[in-house]
Amino acid sequence: xxxxxxxxxxxxxxxxxxxxxxxxGHGYPVPLGSDPVVxxxxxxxxxxxxxxxxxxxxxxxxxxxxxxxxxxxIGKLVGLAVHPxxxxxxxxxxxxxxxxxxxxxxxxxxxxxTTVRLVTEGPQQxxxxxxxxxxxxxxxxxxxxxxxxxxxxxxxxxxxxxRREPVVSVPERLSALLTAASxxxxxxxxxxxxxPCRGAAAAAGAEPIELITAPAFVRRRFLELFPxxxxxxxPLHTPNAVLxxxxxxxxxxxxxxxxxxxxxxxxxxxxxxxxxxxLEAMIGSVTRAGADYVEALLPLADTEALxxxxxxxxxxSAVYPxxxxxxDRLHDYVVLSRTSRQIDFRTTTVSPLLQPYLGAYLSAxxxxxxxxxxxxx
Length: 377
Prior knowledge:
Blueprint: E1 4-7, H1 13-24, H2 36-44, E2 48-54, E3 60-67, E4 74-82, H3 91-105, E5 111-117, H4 122-129, E6 133-144, E7 146-156, E8 169-171, H5 175-184, E9 193-195, E10 209-212, H6 215-225, E11 241-245, E12 251-257, E13 262-269, H7 279-289, E14 293-299, H8 303-311, E15 315-326, E16 329-339, H9 355-369, H10 372-375
Parallel strand pairs: 4-5, 8-9, 13-14
Antiparallel strand pairs: 1-2, 2-3, 3-4, 5-7, 6-7, 10-11, 11-12, 12-13, 14-16, 15-16
């Protein structure tokens, strides 16, 4: 079938909701495919590139979106869906390529990232055919049809990777991840020196952590503490909760999604390393709130913060080279994750491109959670 690609319109919302239901059922955890208010906003406010594939009847049989936000040079590919009756003809690949080409054509983006389910190898092949490069795995990152692992991919604008700021050294537990990225992304980390961690973060006692889930208040407070756009960097995540230390020494802002069972730590005031000794209590708070998976995005060059999170059971999961532009240079970031559920890779389909990342994650997880005498047996 020769479907016609065209922008989504407000008049398509009902048909698009039906399309997402037929593709994902009730398990689709993203408002983009289910909430008409969110869908209308994305179609009309200029922050999204939304393409549909239409049958000869005019009904949408496919959909793909690149989300953007003012002040950020990063987009996110989401909502790729093709009706079951129209699969097998390359429509998913056409949609992916077209919507990304449209987003990059504005000249406002350095990269577009996406997370891909690993139920089958097909979605991995679709993004790779359209210039995306593998960046890592996010085990237990989302609740869709059970607890699922996602893969992180990114596509870059021309010349972006060549303007990366070198990183001198990283905690040695990140070495396997960087080696995997050297193959998967095609960049050279051989000059980045691994250094031993300086030991676990000091315990902060048994002070409780207060979790405040009042989205409007949290956003206002977040903007008060981080008034400049350059102070806020977790693209396309808006905090809706804040974790506060009893003694007031830090406020950790989070994007808590109990439907997906996940939590992203968006920012920490006054600095990420301030949570030293309190991460265990923070994990307990978000777990009780319904999130079994927690992730943090940190600069690859911030050794102090990386060591704090690594000492608290976070595992290096993905690296995002050239993620953030500061001046004319681009800086690398790393995703650290922690899950409170047992990880089961038996139901995941990991393509050869992702195999090095699987090995890197297993190596880091083993170092974190198995005693040395057990590993050496």
